């Protein structure tokens, strides 16, 4: 197998469906223009990674090497995301540069910092801005704003958006599309991001522009272009609204040790949506199944943000990876369903806002238990999510599922997370939950190393774990919290052997969108 074929095989191609007849005619007519606009987002992302890539991309796409076309399209370049962006086509381009094309060739962090230090504060501010590229002119570093540097592409982008906006009837969405196009052309980002956050009754979530800074491995400053086109699920949104309106009643499921107080304000605004298209950084390698945007601190502080859960992408991942994992390690005994899993993930997010947030002495839980906090908090969010579904199902907007489907979807999710690493906070939290449930007889390891689940003790075991985690958050010293994590987050041979069996199951999906 070629290196490209090997990398592609880790992603299973699957259709992520959506019933387009649920959209109104004007929106359906606007889709091709919106998709064309998002393809320009990809063009910008290509150039942000390497100045030579846009030309190379055209040559590859016009060529006859089908595997190469698939690879370039899937990874948005010749680099394998899962191998730290090593090149798979060394005759095309070398490994992706640590600073992509944000900085002058060959300048590392130390060289940049040294050069920045010689300049005025105003110049430095522009060079460090997340929306500029840094270039050398006459031996001096200069900052060029994205809206100037990518002008030609951004004008094409605006052209497609204007055609889309002319068709869209929803007044707020129409205005946002036009303002965002103008905002990207003039460098006014936060204003139009705020407009997107406030737009809560539109049929689409249309998110595009420079957002994340993961690609800048040199200074971690520069943002890359990405685009999401999503259909909003207003039915599931209504359920979320009901959950949001009943947070105080849901908090009653969390043991609150004496004096501890929950967070005020409650839940982050959540949206459930279905992906119709993604582009730029959002369609390269591992697909995003949820995002929380924008990142701009002014918008987050003054207007807020949206947490978007992408239902059909999560469903496709679940079908090709998570449920296959559960079947494999249980010798076919455990069949996990998607809906309980989806609402478990949703209630995990709700649970982050419930339970102890402040201690009796007023200190924040987040700063009171030291480095164990993220692992304990992730375990609390998972366990709280389980307890809410088990105790409150059928009330306050929480859907009702049986104990058995909940347990089996939860079990599948444990191994899904542990597969991505048992030592970071999410993986560690899942090891804690696994070990706890195993000790209570909820998870059984058979002599051949396969697994079975038993629901008799499930609700009680979840209650007890939640009580312990809330006690740690409200009262434990950093040493006690660390000792708890050390005891429970240790992956045994049973876990490691099981993970070994999953090597050939796809890591992720390659989505094909409904047309
Ligand atoms: Zn979490």
Secondary-structure class: alpha+beta
Low-confidence stretches: none
For the biggest β-sheet, the strand order reads 6-7-8-10-9
Report the portion of residues in β strands. 5-15%
The number of helical segments is: 22
Mean pLDDT: 95
Number of strands: 13
Bound molecules: zinc ion
**Multimeric state:** single chain
Radius of gyration: 24 Å
Q: What is the helical fraction, as a range of percent?
A: 40-55%
- Estimate the global geometry from the Cα principal axes: globular
The biggest beta sheet reads: 5 strands, mixed
Structure description:
The chain has 515 residues and is an alpha+beta fold. It has a domain of 198 residues. The strands form five sheets. It has a five-stranded mixed sheet. A two-stranded parallel ribbon has the order 1-13. A two-stranded antiparallel sheet has the order 2-3. The chain starts with a helix and ends with a strand. The structure holds zinc ion (ZN).
Summed up:
With 515 residues, the chain is of the alpha+beta class. The protein has a domain at 310-507. It contains 22 helices and 13 strands.
